[in-house]
Amino acid sequence: MANLSATMKNFCTLEQLAEGRTALHRLHPLAKLAITLAYAAAVISFPIHSLSALAPMAAYPLLGMALSETPWQPLLRRLALTVPFVAMTGLSNLLLDRQVWFYLGALPVTGGLLSCLSVFIKAFLTVSAVLLLIATTPLADLTSQLLRLRVPRVLCLQLMLTYRYISVLLTEAEQMYTAYQLRSGGGRGIRMRDMGPFLGQLLLRSYDRADRVYCAMKCRGYDGTYRAGTLPRLTVRDAAAAASLCGAILLLRLVNLSLLLGRLF
Amino acid sequence: MLTAEHLTVKYAPSDARCALEDVSFTLGDHERTALLGPNGAGKSTLLLALVGILPALSGSVRADGVTLDKTTLAQLRQRLGLVFQNPDDQLFMPTVFQDVAFGPRNYGMGEAETAQAVDGALASLGISHLRDRMIHKLSGGEKRLTALAGVLAMHPSVLLLDEPTSFLDPAASRRLQTCLASLEQGMLITTHDLPFAMDLCERFLFLSRGRLVRDCTRRELGSEEDLRRELESL
Q1: Which pLDDT band holds residue B202 (cuts at 50, 70, 90)?
Q2: What is the distance between the alpha carbons of residues B232 and B38, in angstroms, rounded to a whole number?
Q3: Which residues of A touch B144 (CB under 8 A)?
Q4: Predicted local distance difference test score (pLDDT) of residue A99
Q5: How buried is A248 (Cβ within 10 angstroms: 0-12 exposed, 13-18 middle, 19+ buried)?
Q6: Rounded to the nearest 10 degrees, how much is the dihedral formed by the CA atoms of A16, A22, A25, A28?
Q7: A83, B40, B70, B76: which is deepest, by most CB within 10 A?
Q8: Chain centre to alpha carbon of residue A2
Q9: Which residues of A touch B77 (CB under 8 A)?
Q10: CA A35/CA B30 separation, integer angstroms
Q11: Residue A187 in 3-state DSSP?
Q12: What residues are paired with B198 via a beta bridge?
């Protein structure tokens, strides 16, 4: 709770990054969406124990970040958020599959360990690709594109509203927390007995805010249908870039580059 | 022109007290009117009732010949542009352009027309440079002007402004006043900022406990001190 300001600053970073002007930023949102989906599908489709074959797939997020001049730190911070969720999925494999596949020196490497690592790597690669997409595409363009792809309007509007109002809610929580600290007589954090009223108040404020936002939307003609703006047409260059990147991803999926390189040496 | 006749509003039908009781007034074209009164007098309630957000128990609202009812809500809300007290309640899209374009798009404008309306509204307030900025990066004054631009882009004939100078420092307040003075729309402004009201408005409506208790011009009212005294007596 004490780091709300930092959280807010951190929260705004990706949106700022999306304002960049590199070639990847300029690529049509549909092209980027197609590349990201193709990449995620390719990564997920690798067999659960194929660790070495997965390694070349790291090229896309790495090159993408370099080309789009995306700094590592904010992406790594967000990537770290996925660790507990991935761990919950991956660690159970260690217990379920104890068959020894090979020995690394004296250390037995089980099928469970390989599949656990595979889950971690796949999760990090796919999340990195999604973060790269967000860091190079403004949210408004992304939602407009999703609407064009017939993703339900309600879902797109929810996405936009959530993104916009998380910062407002954080500001509100931060103000409440500051006011609490000034009258709490020292100590860190919120005492357990005050947590209920604090969260309740935050919920009520959020409800009030949501009500006012909805009224303001109605005052500007909102009738339940979210109307996004139009995007520029997909150019031949965008389509060619998407096709060649998807082709490269497919090639990396079908050809085990690690194995080929291993045979060379 | 905006006309409210015998407007009565209750928050809940079972409430003993009316939030607004028998409020009637007419706002002429291009007329700038201040709506004054103590806290809880019903100023914001009146604005919400005028655009049909709060349903009236009785009475009527008419703007440019359109009478408020369920079938004319959209038309009336285009004519009466309500700017909320807190711009964060109004600005919900990620960028300034997207937010200002929200109204025009809802009213069926094409993309070219929408872009024209947005650019026109931003230019009229001198904030064209904010066009592609992120909303959460704007200052309080910039947010206020952007919220106003979002309403102006719908080409309303009357602006309803709820406490437009709240959250603003004196310089930003002065800038907003200059912007508002340059607009041709009629305005109904709720405010506690008396110098702002005196400088901008030529007519004053006083609300107290949901009732319209006085309607006068600036000349009839006198000085800012007279206005302060009048308010304190409510």
Answers
A1: very high
A2: 8
A3: none
A4: 83
A5: middle
A6: 160
A7: B76
A8: 24
A9: 218-221
A10: 54
A11: coil
A12: none
Count of residues in chain A = 265
Residue A197 has pLDDT above 70, yes or no: yes
Closest CA to A54 of A156, A125, A133: A125
Q: Is A168 on the interface with B (CB under 8 A)?
A: yes
The residue behind tokens 């500051």 is A178
Tokens 């050809």, residue located:
A255
Residue B21 backbone class (left: φ over 0; alpha: ψ -120 to 50; beta: rest): beta
B19-33, pLDDT tens digit by residue? Answer: 999 999 999 989 999
Q: Is the pLDDT of residue B185 over 90?
A: yes
Tell me how crowded residue A15 is: count the other CB atoms within 10 A of its CB: 21
B55 touches chain A (CB under 8 A): no
pLDDT score of A11: 60
Query: A18 near A136, Cβ under 8 Å?
Result: yes
Q: Sort residue B126 into left (φ over 0), alpha (ψ -120 to 50) or beta.
A: left
Give the separation between CA B22 and CA B17, rounded to whole angstroms.
Answer: 12
Two structure tokens written together for A56: 């070349």
Tokens 């007419």 sit on residue = B26
Q: Distance of alpha carbon A79 from its chain centroid, rounded?
A: 8
The Cβ-side half-sphere exposure at B108, using a 13 Å CA radius, reads 3
Q: Which residues of chain B lie closer than 8 angstroms to A163, CB-CB?
A: 94
The residue count for chain B: 234
- pLDDT band for position A4 (cuts 50, 70, 90): low
In 3-state terms, what secondary structure has residue A16?
Answer: helix
- Cross-sheet strand order for the sheet of B66-67: B20-27, B2-9, B58-63, B66-67
Q: What is the mean pLDDT of residues B38-49?
A: 94
CA distances from B196 to B84, B139, B172 (A): 17, 21, 12
Q: Is A49 within 8 Å of A97 (Cβ atoms)?
A: no
CA distances from B149 to B75, B127, B145 (A): 19, 9, 6
Beta strand residue intervals within B52-180, DSSP E: 58-63, 66-67, 80-83, 158-162
Q: A with B: how many residue pairs have Cβ under 8 Å apart?
A: 85
Q: Is B207 exposed, middle or buried (0-12, 13-18, 19+ CB in 10 A)?
A: buried
Question: How many Cβ atoms from other residues are within 10 Å of residue B123's Cβ?
Answer: 12
